[in-house]
Amino acid sequence: MDDLRQKYLGLIAEASDEAALEALRVQAIGKKGEVSLAMRELGKMSPEERKEAGPRLNALKDEITSALTAKKAALGDAALEERLAAEWLDVTLPGRPRAQGTIHPISQVMEELTAIFADMGFSVAEGPQVESDWYNFDALNIPGHHPARAEMDTFYMARAEGDNRPPHVLRTHTSPVQIRHMEAYGAPCRVIAPGRVYRADYDQTHTPMFHQVEGLAIDRDISMANLKWVLEEFVKAYFEVDDVELRFRASHFPFTEPSAEVDIRCSWEGGTLKVGEGDDWLEILGSGMVHPKVLQAGGIDPDKWQGFAFGMGIDRIAMLKYGIPDLRAFFDSDLRWLRHYGFSALDVPTLHRGLSA
Question: What are the backbone dihedrals phi and psi of residue 28, each rounded to the nearest 5 degrees, phi first?
Answer without folding.
Answer: -95, -55
